[in-house]
Amino acid sequence: MTNVATGTGQAGSGSAGADRSARLGACLVRARDGDTVALGEIVRELNPLLWHVARGAGLTAEESADVVQTSWLELVRRLHEIRSPQALTSWLVTATRREAWRMRKLARRQEIGRAHV
């Protein structure tokens, strides 16, 4: 799993990162079975990280809110498609980055359109 701060290695340090991945993976498995408390645990733990990723892409607070919300919706839609539950954090970070890039590209197009009016 990628460490967001450095772009390499496990999220977190050593066994703490592995423990976190295992715990969140177990929450994902429970969420797949309809456990909303487990899904809430995932959101509580990873929401700050997703905000960090979105804001780090240069988005406004409003744009970041949309990106993070879209990432969570994508997770709910694809709960059963994530092959490795322990890769949940990486999956969500990747989904958030892609959505942030899409949002930035859209914002740029709108700026260009307003400049030509």
List keywords for this structure.
73% helix; elongated; 117 residues; mainly alpha; 4 helices; 0% strand
Report what the structure shows.
The structure is a single chain. With 117 residues, the protein is mainly alpha-helical. It has helices at residues 14-32, 36-56, 61-77, 88-115. Helix 1 (14-32) crosses helix 2 (36-56) and helix 2 (36-56) runs antiparallel to helix 3 (61-77). Mean pLDDT is 87; it is low at 1-11.
Question: What is the SS-derived class?
Answer: mainly alpha
Strand tally is 0
The share of residues in helices is over 70%
Give the overall shape, derived from the CA principal axes: elongated
Low-pLDDT runs: 1-11
Number of helices: 4
Secondary-structure element sequence?
A: HHHH
Task: Write a short abstract of this structure.
With 117 residues, this protein is mainly α.
List the helices and strands and how they pair.
Blueprint: H1 14-32, H2 36-56, H3 61-77, H4 88-115
